[in-house]
Amino acid sequence: MNILKVDDKGKAACDDCKAFVKTTYLLRDVPFSDQSGVVKNVLVGVCNQCNSVVSLPHQSTPLVKEQLEKQRGILETRVPAHFIDILNLASFELGGSMDFVATLIRYYLHNLANEHLSEKEINHYLTHSLTKGKSQKRLSIKGRHIATDLAKIKELMPITSTSNIIKIIVLKINEDVLLKNNAEKIQFLKSFIAISS
Ligand SMILES: [Zn+2]
Predict the structure, then answer these.
(1) Cα(15) to centroid(ligand 1), Å
(2) Domain count within the chain
(3) Could you tell me if 20 and 54 lie in one domain?
(4) What is the three-class DSSP state of 49?
């Protein structure tokens, strides 16, 4: 295999120029085709005429694959500090430790992906007074199904940002567990903790 270096030259088809063009291999940040993330600093072929990324050399594929998997399995967003308090309190209320917060979010995320909230319901959550406040704390959740669930929610419902999805989930948890609006759900989550701990 021919290993390429930065500034090496090549040729590739450019979609933008609609031609077979001369290229230069450069390090670039490349977004995934579905815009779900970015692979940073990866060696790619860049069109000499229009500067767009036109080819991905074979030697760059392990890096892309690794970053794709890493980024897809992690939900990372910033939330107001009281969101973390709600999550910790709910977890405590259910008899779980703070470790249970991640499981709780994964569960609600998966549920949300399988129900269909109306626009009215979505607005109820997103305009709730508890959604106000500066997003000063980082929330990071790992899980195999997170990317699929997030994508499904964004496809099914008029919610475009991950932070809005988290807002809805935290408020649902607040209603169900802390305001005790859903006895059945609380019972289910308690047994869920019993199994998973
Ligand atoms: Zn071009």
Answers:
(1) 7
(2) 2
(3) yes
(4) coil
pLDDT at 197 > cutoff 60:
no
Same structural domain, 176 and 90: yes
Q: Note down the domain range covering 22.
A: 9-71
pLDDT by residue (tens digit) across 79-130? 999 999 999 999 999 988 878 899 899 999 999 999 888 899 999 999 999 9
Q: What is the pLDDT of residue 137?
A: 93
Q: Which of left, alpha, beta for 51 (phi over 0: left; psi -120 to 50: alpha)?
A: left
Same-domain pairing of 159 and 190: yes
The alpha carbon of 179 and the centre of ligand 1 are apart by a number of angstroms equal to: 57
Residue range 129-136: mean pLDDT, rounded: 91
Q: Is residue 2 part of a domain?
A: no
Q: 46 C-alpha to center of ligand 1: Å?
A: 8
Distance 72 CA to ligand 1 centre (A): 29
Is residue 62 located within the same domain as residue 153?
no
Surrounding residues of ion ligand 1, Cβ less than 5 A: 14, 16-17, 47, 49-50
Ligand 1 centroid to Cα of residue 115, in Å, is 44
Model pTM greater than 0.90?
A: no
**With contact defined as beta carbons under 8 Å apart, do 24 and 13 qualify?**
no
Task: Answer whether residue 27 is part of any domain.
Answer: yes
pLDDT at residue 68 is higher than 80:
no
Q: Is residue 62 part of a domain?
A: yes
